[in-house]
Design brief:
single chain; alpha/beta; 8 strands; globular
Length: about 300
């Protein structure tokens, strides 16, 4: 039987494709609460948030929101925008890295264009002492994403990481194939609507697979980003880290801007490194709908703001 959480998730991700819902949320979403999850529509607005989070002891990453660009010239403009973001991070002295989607950089057109753009960003970030993570998108993009990640590593670029999603059956095999690289991987549950033929439909199975991915990464990987707000998984990982004496410089916890901020600061007070994903940009709608689909509490937050309005 499908859980109420999964039903809500499917409803929201399906609604994200509805023209009426899209129009309403794009028009009123920032006023009704999207700003809780998105650090502004401009880089100037985002820098203020990044600095505040850094001052609270939190590391950050930022993304220029956008995906599925099918114009080659536009993908190069996106890459140019990211170069400017890296330069601004450097000037501001922010403890902030980049997270990027390959479909924003040309993957819908072809691997070569996406590789060209992400390589440019990774090289520039390396010159500035910074780091780039390739976000994982929906299942049809997994193979291409991992191919491009491997290619960058083969180029000798070490300041690059990617993501594995624990709701996909394939992720354990993908991890085993990547471990010889001592990769820098973020482990997440997954935020896209996937069919049960390729993804675990039950939350309990997704959670168990998260732990199955995190444990070998902590022991054998290069660097592990434990990206969850699930306190049971966090507690399990902390116990595992302590039992196996995993050095503090080989992992961090990652969470989303606007989600469980008290948990974030509590982990910092306990001596753990926490990085907050802090996206910005005008194309925030798909990102917001995935955040609403992940946690019913996020939907209630938006509804309360709607009623107040």
């Amino acid at each position: 039987m499908m859980s109420s959480h999964l039903i809500m998730r499917r409803v929201l991700l399906t609604a994200a494709q509805n023209a009426v819902v899209t129009g309403f949320v794009r028009r009123y979403g920032m006023r009704l609460g999207a700003a809780r999850f998105v650090a502004g529509e401009s880089l100037d607005e985002c820098v203020v948030v990044l600095r505040r989070l850094n001052e609270a002891g939190l590391l950050t990453n930022t993304t220029v929101l956008g995906e599925s660009v099918r114009d080659a010239a536009m993908t190069r403009q996106v890459a140019e925008t990211y170069v400017a973001v890296l330069d601004r991070i450097q000037r501001e002295g922010l403890r902030t890295t980049l997270a990027v989607k390959l479909t924003h950089l040309g993957l819908e057109i072809g691997d070569e264009l996406a590789y060209e753009n992400i390589r440019r960003l990774t090289v520039h970030a390396g010159e500035l002492g910074n780091f780039v993570r390739i976000d994982m998108e929906d299942s049809p993009r997994v193979d291409a994403t991992l191919r491009i990640y491997r290619r960058l590593r083969e180029d000798g670029l070490a300041n690059i990481g990617t993501v594995l999603q624990s709701y996909l059956y394939r992720s354990e095999a993908d991890l085993r194939a990547l471990l010889p690289l001592r990769p820098n991987l973020r482990i997440v549950k997954g935020a896209y609507l996937e069919p049960p033929g390729i993804a675990y439909p039950r939350k309990a199975d997704v959670d168990r697979n998260f732990v199955r991915l995190a444990e070998p990464m902590l022991l054998e990987g290069g660097f592990t980003a434990i990206a969850t707000h699930d306190e049971r998984i966090i507690a399990h990982c902390i116990d595992f880290i302590r039992a196996h004496q995993v050095p503090r410089d080989r992992f961090e916890f990652q969470m989303l801007y606007g989600v469980r901020p008290r948990l974030q600061t509590d982990l910092v007070r306990r001596g753990f490194t926490v990085r907050v994903a802090t996206p910005h940009g005008r194309d925030w709608y798909p990102y917001l709908m995935r955040r609403l689909a992940e946690r019913p509490a996020n939907v209630l937050f938006m509804v309360r703001n709607l009623l107040r309005a």
